[in-house]
Amino acid sequence: MADSIRSPRPARNAGPRARDQGAPRLEPLLLEGLEPGLAGDPEAGHRTEGLAFDGADFTGRELGAATFSECAFRDVTAHDADLRSVSFLDCRFERLNAPSLPAPRSRWRGVEIEASRIGSAELYDAELNGVLVRGCKLGYVNLRGARLRDVKFEDCAIEELDLGHASAMRVAFEGTQIDALDARGASFEHVDMRGARLSRVSGIDGLRGATVSGLQAAELAELMAARLGIAVEG
């Protein structure tokens, strides 16, 4: 059963040196000279490079094992597009709409996702390296068994974040609401949770290696005591 954390916005009282330690290493993404692309251009198992897709509809497209390199996606719909084992390399998504996004075992390297809405993102066993997610509304984000390196969530709303058995290094959350977090069996290193507003947490032991605020630490201590059957009074 999930535990409850009633957490307002964490206090931002850490010094610059503490906040920068282990921070995600993200490089600016520069995409220039892109040619216009059509939704019918990409094919499963093929490589697509240097195209800008504006307003394209990828709904239901079979794109398994495709590779997208240096591409931009603006106002794109990708509901139920088959993105199994797809690779996105140096790509930007703006206003992506995907009620269902099946992308297990996919690879995301040097990717920016902004102002997007994704209902259910199946990203289990995926690899995220150098990824910025900003201003997005996300429903269920399934990152079970995924490998995250240098990933930042900024000003996002996430209903349910499943990091069960995931490996995360240099991951940060800033101004992000997480209604439910599952960290059971996770491996964290330099994961900064101070900018997250948490409502419920499952698998407190999986937070080992994370940095939390003083307020969050107190709330987590209460949950740990309850799990161990320790009464805290006075």
Could you walk me through the main structural features you see in this protein, from its secondary elements to its overall organization?
This protein is mainly beta and 234 residues long. The radius of gyration is 19 Å and the shape is elongated. The strands form two sheets. Strands 2, 3, 4, 5, 6, 7, 8, 10, 12, 14, 16, 18 and 20 form a 13-stranded parallel sheet that branches. A seven-stranded mixed sheet has the order 1-19-17-15-13-11-9, with no helix packed on it. The relative contact order is 0.15. Helix content is 9%, strand content 43%.
What attributes does this structure have?
single chain, mainly beta, elongated, 13-stranded parallel sheet, 234 residues, disordered N terminus, 2 helices
Secondary-structure-based class equals: mainly beta
End-to-end Cα distance = 27 Å
Radius of gyration: 19 Å
Q: What's the helix count?
A: 2
Q: How confident is the prediction overall: mean pLDDT?
A: 89
Please, what is the oligomeric state? single chain
